[in-house]
Amino acid sequence: MEKDSRCPCNSGESYESCCGRYHQGFNDPNTPAWPGTAVALMRSRFSAFALGLPEFLLATWHPDTRPAELELDEAIVWQDLDIIRTEAGGPFDSNGIVEFEAHYRLLNQSNSQHEVSDFVREGGRWYYLDGDD
Ligand SMILES: [Zn+2]
Protein backbone atom coordinates (compact mmCIF):
# COMPACT_ATOMS: atom_id res chain seq x y z
CA MET A 1 0.00 0.00 0.00
CA GLU A 2 1.20 3.52 -0.82
CA LYS A 3 2.25 5.43 2.26
CA ASP A 4 0.24 8.51 1.31
CA SER A 5 -2.94 6.56 0.49
CA ARG A 6 -6.02 6.96 2.64
CA CYS A 7 -5.86 4.66 5.64
CA PRO A 8 -8.20 1.63 5.37
CA CYS A 9 -9.55 2.29 8.89
CA ASN A 10 -11.39 5.35 7.57
CA SER A 11 -9.78 7.76 10.01
CA GLY A 12 -9.30 10.32 7.25
CA GLU A 13 -5.53 10.18 7.81
CA SER A 14 -2.90 8.85 5.44
CA TYR A 15 -1.96 5.22 5.88
CA GLU A 16 1.59 6.16 6.89
CA SER A 17 0.55 8.56 9.65
CA CYS A 18 -2.28 6.30 10.89
CA CYS A 19 -2.08 2.49 10.96
CA GLY A 20 0.91 2.09 8.65
CA ARG A 21 3.49 3.06 11.25
CA TYR A 22 2.24 0.30 13.56
CA HIS A 23 2.20 -2.27 10.76
CA GLN A 24 5.81 -1.30 10.08
CA GLY A 25 7.01 -0.85 13.64
CA PHE A 26 5.34 -3.56 15.72
CA ASN A 27 8.31 -5.92 15.31
CA ASP A 28 10.98 -3.45 14.25
CA PRO A 29 13.58 -2.94 17.01
CA ASN A 30 15.01 0.15 15.30
CA THR A 31 11.81 2.12 14.90
CA PRO A 32 9.35 0.41 17.25
CA ALA A 33 5.74 1.55 17.13
CA TRP A 34 2.74 0.15 19.00
CA PRO A 35 -0.70 1.72 19.28
CA GLY A 36 -0.99 3.78 22.46
CA THR A 37 -4.74 3.39 22.92
CA ALA A 38 -7.24 0.57 22.60
CA VAL A 39 -9.06 2.35 19.78
CA ALA A 40 -5.81 2.91 17.86
CA LEU A 41 -5.11 -0.80 18.20
CA MET A 42 -8.64 -1.58 17.01
CA ARG A 43 -8.14 0.63 13.95
CA SER A 44 -4.75 -0.88 13.15
CA ARG A 45 -6.19 -4.40 13.45
CA PHE A 46 -9.04 -3.54 11.08
CA SER A 47 -6.50 -2.16 8.60
CA ALA A 48 -4.45 -5.34 9.02
CA PHE A 49 -7.51 -7.40 8.12
CA ALA A 50 -8.13 -5.12 5.13
CA LEU A 51 -4.52 -5.40 3.92
CA GLY A 52 -4.02 -9.08 4.80
CA LEU A 53 -1.39 -8.84 7.55
CA PRO A 54 -1.90 -11.90 9.77
CA GLU A 55 1.45 -11.44 11.56
CA PHE A 56 0.30 -8.10 12.91
CA LEU A 57 -3.05 -9.55 13.98
CA LEU A 58 -1.37 -12.39 15.87
CA ALA A 59 1.18 -10.06 17.51
CA THR A 60 -1.56 -7.79 18.83
CA TRP A 61 -3.74 -10.67 20.06
CA HIS A 62 -3.44 -11.45 23.77
CA PRO A 63 -1.57 -14.75 24.33
CA ASP A 64 -4.50 -16.11 26.38
CA THR A 65 -6.90 -15.96 23.43
CA ARG A 66 -4.57 -15.84 20.40
CA PRO A 67 -5.19 -18.60 17.85
CA ALA A 68 -2.21 -20.78 16.97
CA GLU A 69 -2.44 -19.60 13.41
CA LEU A 70 -4.60 -17.28 11.42
CA GLU A 71 -5.71 -17.68 7.87
CA LEU A 72 -7.50 -14.67 6.44
CA ASP A 73 -10.43 -15.26 4.13
CA GLU A 74 -9.44 -13.53 0.90
CA ALA A 75 -13.05 -13.54 -0.29
CA ILE A 76 -13.89 -10.96 2.38
CA VAL A 77 -13.11 -7.41 1.27
CA TRP A 78 -13.05 -5.15 4.31
CA GLN A 79 -14.32 -1.74 3.35
CA ASP A 80 -15.10 0.55 6.21
CA LEU A 81 -14.92 0.86 9.97
CA ASP A 82 -17.29 2.72 12.27
CA ILE A 83 -16.19 3.19 15.87
CA ILE A 84 -19.43 3.33 17.84
CA ARG A 85 -18.24 3.66 21.45
CA THR A 86 -15.10 3.43 23.54
CA GLU A 87 -14.63 2.96 27.27
CA ALA A 88 -11.28 3.59 28.98
CA GLY A 89 -8.51 2.20 26.78
CA GLY A 90 -6.24 5.23 27.22
CA PRO A 91 -2.47 5.29 27.65
CA PHE A 92 -2.76 4.87 31.44
CA ASP A 93 -5.63 2.40 31.60
CA SER A 94 -5.20 -1.34 31.90
CA ASN A 95 -8.48 -2.27 30.20
CA GLY A 96 -10.48 -0.88 27.36
CA ILE A 97 -13.65 -1.54 25.40
CA VAL A 98 -14.29 -0.62 21.79
CA GLU A 99 -17.65 -1.15 20.12
CA PHE A 100 -17.49 -1.06 16.36
CA GLU A 101 -19.14 -2.04 13.12
CA ALA A 102 -16.87 -3.30 10.36
CA HIS A 103 -18.28 -3.27 6.85
CA TYR A 104 -17.23 -5.74 4.19
CA ARG A 105 -18.23 -7.30 0.93
CA LEU A 106 -18.45 -11.01 0.37
CA LEU A 107 -19.60 -12.53 -2.92
CA ASN A 108 -20.79 -9.10 -4.07
CA GLN A 109 -22.97 -8.65 -1.02
CA SER A 110 -22.48 -5.90 1.53
CA ASN A 111 -22.40 -7.08 5.08
CA SER A 112 -21.15 -5.93 8.44
CA GLN A 113 -19.79 -7.29 11.67
CA HIS A 114 -20.77 -5.63 14.93
CA GLU A 115 -18.63 -6.37 17.98
CA VAL A 116 -17.90 -5.14 21.48
CA SER A 117 -14.20 -5.90 21.91
CA ASP A 118 -12.19 -6.15 25.11
CA PHE A 119 -8.61 -4.92 25.16
CA VAL A 120 -5.98 -5.18 27.90
CA ARG A 121 -2.71 -3.34 28.34
CA GLU A 122 0.27 -5.37 29.55
CA GLY A 123 3.91 -4.39 29.59
CA GLY A 124 2.95 -1.02 28.12
CA ARG A 125 1.26 -2.61 25.11
CA TRP A 126 -2.40 -2.91 24.23
CA TYR A 127 -3.69 -6.33 23.15
CA TYR A 128 -6.99 -7.54 21.74
CA LEU A 129 -8.52 -10.01 24.21
CA ASP A 130 -11.91 -11.06 22.86
CA GLY A 131 -15.24 -9.78 21.65
CA ASP A 132 -19.01 -10.25 21.77
CA ASP A 133 -21.43 -9.69 18.90
ZN1 LIG B 1 -5.74 3.81 10.23
From TrEMBL:
<dbReference type="InterPro" id="IPR048469">
    <property type="entry name" value="YchJ-like_M"/>
</dbReference>
<dbReference type="InterPro" id="IPR032710">
    <property type="entry name" value="NTF2-like_dom_sf"/>
</dbReference>
<feature type="domain" description="YchJ-like middle NTF2-like">
    <location>
        <begin position="37"/>
        <end position="131"/>
    </location>
</feature>
<dbReference type="Pfam" id="PF17775">
    <property type="entry name" value="YchJ_M-like"/>
</dbReference>
<dbReference type="InterPro" id="IPR023006">
    <property type="entry name" value="YchJ-like"/>
</dbReference>
<protein>
    <recommendedName>
        <fullName>UPF0225 protein JOF46_000220</fullName>
    </recommendedName>
</protein>
<comment type="similarity">
    <text>Belongs to the UPF0225 family.</text>
</comment>
